[in-house]
Amino acid sequence: MTLIAAVAFFFSGxxxxxxxxxYTIGTDVTFPPFVYANSNNKYVGIDMELIRxxxxxxxxxxxxxxxxxxxxxxxVSSGQIDGVIAGMTITDERKQTFDFSNxxxxxxxxxxxxxxxxxxxxxxxxxxxxxxxxxxxxxxYANSLKDKYGFKVVTFDDSDNVYNDVKTGNSAACxxxxxxxxxxxxxxxxxxxxxxxxxxxxxxFAVKKGQNQELLKMFNQGLxxxxxxxxxxxxxxxxxGAAATSSTKxxxxxxxxxxxxxxxxxxxxxxxxxxxxxETLKLTILSIIFATIFGILIGLLGVIPNKxxxxxxxxxxYIFRGLxxxxxxxxIYNGVPSLTGSKIPAFxxxxxxxxxxxxxxxxxxxxxxxxxxxxxxxxxxxxxGLPFSKxxxxxxxxxxxxxxxxxxINQFIIxxxxxxxxxxxxxxxxxxxxxIIIARNLQGFKVWTIVAVIYLLLITILxxxxxxxxxxxxx
Length: 475
Ligand SMILES: NC(=O)CC[C@H](N)C(=O)O
Hints:
Blueprint: H1 2-12, E1 22-27, E2 36-37, E3 43-44, H2 46-58, E4 61-66, H3 69-77, E5 83-84, H4 92-95, E6 98-100, E7 105-113, E8 129-133, H5 137-149, E9 152-156, H6 159-167, E10 173-177, H7 178-186, E11 192-193, E12 198-203, E13 206-208, H8 213-228, H9 231-240, H10 242-258, H11 262-301, H12 307-322, H13 325-340, H14 346-372, H15 375-383, H16 388-418, H17 430-441, H18 444-474
Parallel strand pairs: 1-4, 1-5, 8-9, 8-10
Antiparallel strand pairs: 2-3, 5-13, 6-13, 7-10, 7-11, 7-12
Helix pairs in contact: 2-8, 9-10, 11-12, 11-14, 11-16, 11-17, 11-18, 12-14, 13-14, 14-16, 15-16, 16-18, 17-18
Bound molecules: glutamine.
Pfam families: BPD_transp_1, SBP_bac_3
Family: Belongs to the binding-protein-dependent transport system permease family.
Keywords: Cell membrane, Membrane, Transmembrane, Transmembrane helix, Transport
């Protein structure tokens, strides 16, 4: 824990958190017409325009983080970000954890099916799967009905995956907000709504209960102004008016045709993919450096003749090798800040996670590598009068390192691959970039192929580089 705090402290000096009243606002990745990325990967939609206009009106700055609905909500409640705007329904249960702004839109839950499925309502769902989005009101609603109607609930992290599961026929239906599905139907989503809106509620902007009250106040003031000066109506019309939806429908059809090729997809998302690659590389390089240092230290602690240091080394390896990387990432990013009250930027949390996990593996093989050197070597060196540290340094380590090199290379490659897990805490590395692109264009097969090929290329480069270093060390 001290280590986490120390590394976080070291980094927090370099990361400008909260310069001149900038608020970090989390949102969904794809929830049109409220939030979605346009073809330039800029986040647009009713919620985005509202928050930007309000920020301008009230004189504060915002930084938008497209985390996905559930992650955004979690990040506000752990204090990692300041607020969430993502078509979030104001409910009594959520009021225990959040303070909501005045309402800005109304919606209920509807059920949608594939047009040719023949499913007409809840009564047809017996024995079938129903897709919903993690942590949403739609999910709560589905869970409240599943026993009565005998269906199984499956959850996805974003709406597009929910719809896709219905379109492919894996799920018989989905439950989602009427405001969103109505818009989807009008803009060519390819699903049909079969029920009347239930659980009707209002959307609000949310902050953590008791926190960021000035932000909440500004939101309410700004919203009132926008409603008064006509800007609010303008925004709503811009996204939901007949002209808007029919032109979006046309654009969607056109884009579908264009983005049907690999080259088209790469061209369209060039910028985003490149930024993703750079982020992945930054995470990988920094983590490899820190994990190697950490791993060697802990590994060495495990072989020196001291009970306490050996115990410490074994415990650290046991804990951080034993914890799933995903759990460790969520624990550091969401768990620790809700305990300590101070935030850790996602990037820093990511580096700490990889350092601890990859470092534990490194420590294990460093220890193993040293132990693999014949014990006679140490004994012989000591009997010649060399002190332990000298014998280690001059006799044992040089032999041990040769044994360890293949494991180091292996661990570097694993570290690169493991950066993909950090997409869960919203770091915009390559995998998260892929998710977001797919959320927009639903080209799952092609985008994942592109992403996979990029990873393989990066891994090839890393392997060649390591092999080159290996040859130099061996000679
Ligand atoms: N972005 C969303 O999916 C929000 C869904 C729904 N309105 C909720 O608050 O749970």
